Input
Amino acid sequence: MPNPVLYYDDISPPVRSVLLTLAALGIKDKVDFKWIDLFSRGHLEESFVELNPLHTVPVLQHDDLILTDSHAILMYLCDEYGMDSPFSLKDPKKRARVHNRLCFNNAVLFRRDSELFQQVFRGTIKNLSEHTKPIEEAFDYLESYLNESSFVACDELTIADFSIVATLSTAEIACPVNDGIRWPRLAAWYGKMKLLPYYETENQIGLDKLKMKIKAALG
Output
C-alpha cells in the first residue's frame, strides 16, 4: 500500500493537530506531504476540489480512503499506526472520552474560533477584544473538563490534546489564557503542551504565520 498523502497548510489549526499527531506517533517519514497554499487560494483549484468538495485542509488520502476532517484523520492514524503506542484507542472507554473531546473541539471550540477569524479576514472585525465572549465560554468548559483529568480527555496525553491545543493556541490570539486567573487549570495544561518536544515545529511555526496574517488583516 502506498504512503498516506497529507494535503496541508500549517497555518490551519486542524492541520497542525494532524502534524502534532504524526510527530507524536513518530510516523512523519511514512507520510507524503502536499502543500495547499490557503492564502493563494490553492484550496479552490479544480484538482483539489475534486478530491475534497469542501475545499478545506487537512485531507488525508491513503490508497482508496479519503478523509476530509481532522478529527477523523487523528483517529485513523491512531488505529492504523498507534495501536502499540501510548496513543492507542483500543480501550472502549478511553476511545469514547477522546472522541467526546474531539466532538467538543469540532462543534464548540473550533467553530467559535473559526467564526471569529473569518470575520477578521472579511474585514468586519477590527477589535478582537470586543468579540471574545463565545471563546471565553468555551475556555470555561475546558477548565471544567480539566477538573476531571490531567489532560483534556484522560490522565495521559491523547490526540484530543493535539486537536484542542492547535485550536486553543489560535483562539488565544484573541483571548489569552496564560495569566492563570480565570482558567488556572487550562493555563497549566497549555504550559505542559508547549513543553512537548515537537510543539514548536508542528504547531508554533504555523501559528506564527497565522498571527502575521491576522495582524495584517487587523491593520
About this structure: The chain is about 55% helix and 5% strand.
